[in-house]
Write a structure and sequence with these properties.
Elements (H helix, E strand, L loop, with lengths): L5 H12 L7 E3 L1 H7 L2 E6 L9 H14 L6 E5 L3 H12 L3 E6 L5 H9 L3 E4 L4 H15 L2 E2 L5 H17 L5 E5 L4 H13 L4 E7 L4 H8 L22 H10 L2 E5 L1 H15 L5 H12 L8 E6 L6 H9 L1
Parallel strand pairs: 2-10, 3-4, 3-6, 4-5, 7-8, 7-10, 8-9
Antiparallel strand pairs: 1-2
Helix pairs in contact: 1-7, 3-4, 3-7, 4-5, 7-8, 8-10, 11-12
Length: about 325
């Protein structure tokens, strides 16, 4: 896969900004003091759907309509944020959305997807089982399957890094949580297009190690996804195309435990009064884990989403 060029990212920005404004990036003093370095947070928890996936779906569905595909029903699988974004963007382009989720998925995210107009189908024990079922159902009915990783999605996610690098130049390191990979690859595209030198570090759950193990072995390797908090990173099977780009563009991977993620969720709330879901706090968890090597540096983390169930958030805050 080739990275989107600057002109493609600018085109994606125009599509995104027709539906939402750019999100903020702030350097938070208390968080910087805690981490011992200058910490910038990119607030993708401030999008209309509370997660960066809004951007990628807006671009994907606009490009799908412009391609003259004639799609009427779009089908996908998700743990929540991507499904909300697909429902939101599909409706804007006059299409129906069918979303498969694993059984036991977040009740709040399920409610949000239905509220955005999606037909929700619960199937399977995890994301991969839901994904396979969604693909089979789409193929059987002649519907369009929306993948979780695609060049149009990457162009959309690149827009948040485009904003970050333009607003906070000369960052030494940026930490990005990894689901299937569009966010971190979008950052690599923005870095290349703007000519900045920021080191890009991937963040993976210690309880869903597929990308970390694949990065080490330099080949796609499946691994169980058993994280309690970071469902946005609960991917058991990596995308081979995404992995190949990561091997070129990402310097290293950091794994964070659920306990570290919970502590980071509390830190984000205490130091910035923002709510971060598990995956959204993972970058901060990585910064706190690596604080000794980051002394005096200028670093960033992406708060990729803030859609956490109230009960779970209360449990984490009470720990």
């Amino acid at each position: 896969m080739n990275l989107p060029a600057g002109v493609e990212i600018e085109r994606a920005c125009a599509i995104v900004y027709a539906a939402m404004p750019p999100t903020a990036q702030y350097c938070w003093p208390l968080l910087s003091e805690r981490a011992g370095c200058e910490v910038w947070l990119k607030h993708e928890n401030h999008t209309p759907l509370g997660a960066f996936k809004t951007r990628s779906a807006l671009v994907y569905f606009r490009r799908l309509r412009e391609a003259g595909s004639g799609v009427r029903v779009a089908v996908t699988a998700t743990r929540g944020n991507f499904g909300q974004a697909v429902a939101f963007a599909a409706r804007r382009e006059g299409m129906e959305a069918v979303v498969y989720v694993p059984r036991g998925n977040s009740a709040d995210k399920n409610r949000s997807m239905r509220g955005l107009g999606a037909t929700l189908i619960e199937h399977g024990a995890d994301f991969e089982e839901a994904r396979q079922a969604a693909r089979l159902w789409a193929d059987a009915g002649g519907h369009h399957y929306v993948p979780s990783f695609h060049e149009w999605l990457v162009a959309g996610t690149a827009t948040y890094s485009w904003e970050l690098f333009r607003a906070a130049p000369s960052l030494d390191v940026a930490y990005v949580p990894i689901g299937l990979g569009s966010g971190i690859i979008g950052m690599a595209a923005a870095r290349a297009a703007l000519g900045v030198k920021t080191e890009i570090v991937g963040v993976v759950s210690a309880h869903a190690r597929a990308y970390a193990e694949s990065f080490t072995r330099r080949e796609a390797t499946a691994s169980p996804a058993r994280t309690r908090l970071a469902d946005g990173m609960a991917v058991p099977v990596p995308d081979p195309d995404a992995l190949q780009v990561m091997l070129r563009e990402v310097s290293r991977m950091v794994t964070v435990t659920d306990d570290e993620v919970a502590a980071a969720m509390r830190t984000v709330f205490d130091d910035t009064h923002n709510i971060a879901e598990g995956a959204g706090a993972a970058g901060v968890a990585a910064i706190l884990q690596e604080r000794d090597r980051l002394r005096g540096k200028r670093v960033a983390a992406v708060i990729s989403g803030g859609n956490v169930d109230r009960k779970l958030f209360a449990e984490v805050m009470g720990e």
